[in-house]
Specification:
Oligomer: heterodimer
Number of strands of chain B: 8
Mean pLDDT of chain A: 93
Number of helices of chain A: 11
Strand order of the largest sheet of chain A: 3-2-4-1-5-6-7-8
Radius of gyration of chain B: 21 Å
Structural class of chain B: alpha/beta
Helix content of chain A: 40-55%
Low-confidence stretches of chain B: none
Radius of gyration of chain A: 21 Å
Bound molecules: guanosine-5'-triphosphate, magnesium ion
Strand order of the largest sheet of chain B: 3-2-4-1-5-6-7-8
Largest sheet of chain A: 8 strands, mixed
Largest interface: A-B, 43 and 41 residues
Number of helices of chain B: 10
Distance between the termini of chain B: 29 Å
Order of helices and strands of chain B: HHHEHEHEHEHEHEHEEH
Number of strands of chain A: 8
Strand content of chain A: 5-15%
Order of helices and strands of chain A: HHHHEHEHEHEHEHEHEEH
Low-confidence stretches of chain A: none
Strand content of chain B: 5-15%
Helix content of chain B: 40-55%
């Protein structure tokens, strides 16, 4: 397996006092394959492994550090660096808008975020601005009911739904807005998203991204960022087997950190991203 | 000139990247590479200049071949037998199962078939309501129980109804499930045991990268996939996921989803997908 190949190479390095260029090449090849297998964007995977290679060749291990520890530290720092500057949602009053591709987990995440803010002792309101998907408002309403959280919106116009939310739920400290799935090439839906963002004036626009998404993560994240400005990423369905390498591209394209990961279908299945755990799982 | 392993290495690197960027899973790329090595190393060509084009042509041909090994004729869905044709739709969360059922029901009705929709996703919020809206729009019979009920019982009821009323097709909607969730995978096996579908359709997302292989493999191992429907091809324009799945389980792709409307379901065309990958 890839992880055993990587470990085997690391064991070779462990025995060495300094690392030969051949060994570095071997390590870099293994890392490249691990990254590609983990759905990291092809160009990003090549860039990352090139940077790791040049650092491993040029940087001298600090005194008291073995060659292996030195290389592990370089790999770790490059990978964690690719996750961007970490930032957490403040547990305070704010308006949050969720956007993303179809079926990524936006509506479910809206419910999970509502529960998260509730646990911080804040009042929460959920607004359904997805006026396209059949029973989208019903889905959000059922989640809201599970949490005893008020819900607003629905109807046939997304901007009107957002306005209804602002009016009816304006007294509540945290307002979370769910939107319909859409993608880069759907100009009408992109325009709708811009119009809804303009009305809400959200403090956070979170891109909800499914951990199974492959090479499209980067280009789609870039399009969402260009349209409305993404301030954070939520990576969902990490309870599956997908490594979530697409998140690295989403971060690169939006300059926004992964604030939460989804780990199941229930409303309590939302956790903060743990960079070390995420990276070691990604590398196998 | 003779094609040597080193020629293959050089040309393949670029082609490999093109495949990976089109969402062909790493495992599938490696399998294709191994097959090409078998066929091409030692092959005589007219001149050195012919080597790269020969390799590229052989790669395209092997892609089409992989996608055409097994084929699914949509006409199979229209065949009239003694009793309804029962089809269950399975897959991981959010891939487009419910929407695909609506699209297929629309197509079947357009071909003069009567359709029964079974709301066997009894778990997710709004799942039953979502399918019911489609049933009403399409004018299909809709079978559902209480939310939280036994999915297998809903499927069984729908099949019994279709048999009693001489309906042509039963489409069974099931909940999304992670292939790593043993309880949910067991639930799917139970639905199959109770409802005895004639066909199991795996609904996969074209956006999926390497996990498509894992998904297809596990679902195939648990219930046996008859054919695959690949959705959101309008979003992931290249469609390499089709190759990942074909390579993993060797089952045909019956349809592709290219949008959210009822018309947005197309029969699968191997040459069309390969063109998009190399566009
Ligand atoms: N296993 C798992 N399933 C999840 C997670 N997040 C969401 N889901 C499931 O993924 C499916 C899609 O979730 P939705 O919340 O409907 O996705 P969406 O982005 O709102 O979909 P659209 O509105 O159609 O674009 C549902 O079956 C959810 O239960 C997660 O973290 N883990
Ligand atoms: N653009 C596009 N969107 C699609 C396609 N197929 C499905 N969708 C969208 O994907 C989202 C999820 O579709 P669903 O049919 O609810 O998916 P599902 O597999 O039933 O989801 P769960 O039951 O929650 O697992 C919806 O927003 C659909 O409109 C497609 O071919 N193209
Ligand atoms: Mg939704
Ligand atoms: Mg569904």
């Amino acid at each position: 397996s890839l992880s055993s190949a990587l470990r085997a190479t690391m064991r070779k390095i462990a025995g060495a006092s300094h690392i030969s260029p051949e060994l570095v090449k071997e390590l870099v090849r293994d890392i490249q394959r691990a990254l590609l297998q983990a759905d990291v964007n092809v160009k990003l995977a090549l860039d990352l492994s090139k940077r790791i290679e040049s650092r491993a060749l040029e940087e001298k291990a600090p005194a008291g550090m073995t060659a292996r520890e030195h290389v592990v530290r370089i790999v770790h720092s490059e990978m964690v660096g690719a996750l961007g500057v970490p930032r957490e949602l403040k547990p305070g009053a704010q308006k949050i808008m969720l956007v993303g591709l179809y079926g990524q987990g936006k509506t479910t995440t809206a419910g999970k975020l509502a529960k998260w803010f509730q646990s911080k002792g804040l009042s929460v309101g959920l607004t359904g601005a997805d006026v396209h998907r059949p029973a989208a408002f019903e889905q959000l309403s059922q989640l809201a009911a599970q949490l005893n959280v008020p819900v607003a919106g629905g109807g046939s116009d997304a901007v009107a739904a957002a306005k209804a939310g602002l009016t009816e739920l304006g007294e509540l400290e945290v307002q979370i807005f769910d939107t319909a799935g859409r993608h880069a090439l759907d100009t009408d839906l992109i325009d709708e998203m811009k119009a809804v963002a303009k009305v809400i004036q959200p403090d956070e626009i979170l891109l909800v991204l499914d951990a199974t998404v492959g090479q499209q993560a980067g280009p789609q994240a870039a399009a969402f960022h260009e349209a409305v400005g993404v301030t954070g990423v939520v990576l969902t369905k990490l309870d599956g087997s997908a490594k979530g390498g697409g998140a690295l591209s989403a971060v690169a394209e939006t300059q926004a950190p992964v604030m939460f990961v989804g780990t199941g279908e229930m409303l309590d299945a939302l956790e903060r991203l743990e960079p070390d755990r995420f990276i070691s799982r990604l590398l196998g | 000139a003779v094609v040597q392993a080193k020629h293959l290495e050089n040309v393949m690197w670029e082609l490999e990247l093109a495949l990976l960027e089109s969402d062909v899973a790493m495992e599938a790329v490696e399998a294709l590479k191994a097959k090409l090595q078998q066929r091409l190393v030692g092959l005589r060509v007219a001149s050195r200049g012919e080597i790269a084009p020969t390799i590229e042509k052989a790669l395209k041909a092997s892609l089409v071949e992989l996608l055409s090994l097994e084929s699914f004729d949509p006409q199979r869905l229209l065949a009239r037998g003694d009793g309804p044709l029962v089809i269950a739709f399975v897959g991981v969360n959010g891939t487009g199962k419910t929407t695909t059922i609506a699209r297929l029901a629309h197509w079947l009705q357009g071909q003069g078939r009567s359709v029964v929709l079974a709301a066997a996703d009894t778990f997710r919020a709004g799942a039953i309501e979502q399918l019911e809206i489609h049933a009403n729009k399409l004018g299909c019979k809709f079978i559902a129980h209480q939310s939280g009920g036994d999915p297998a019982a809903v499927a069984f009821d729908a099949v019994a109804h279709a048999k009693a009323k001489h309906r042509d097709v039963v489409l069974i909607d099931t909940a999304g499930r992670m292939q790593t969730n043993t309880n949910l995978m067991d639930e799917m096996v139970k639905i199959q045991r109770v409802a005895k579908p004639d066909l199991i359709m795996f609904v996969g997302d074209a956006l999926a990268g390497n996990d498509a292989v894992e998904q297809a493999r596990k679902f195939h191992a648990m219930v046996g996939i008859d054919a695959v429907i690949l959705t959101k091809l309008d979003v992931d324009a290249k469609g390499g996921t089709a190759l990942s799945i074909a390579s993993a389980i060797g089952r045909p792709i019956a349809f592709v989803g290219i949008g959210q409307d009822y018309e947005d379901l197309m029969p699968f065309d191997a040459a069309w997908i390969v063109e998009r990958i190399f566009a």
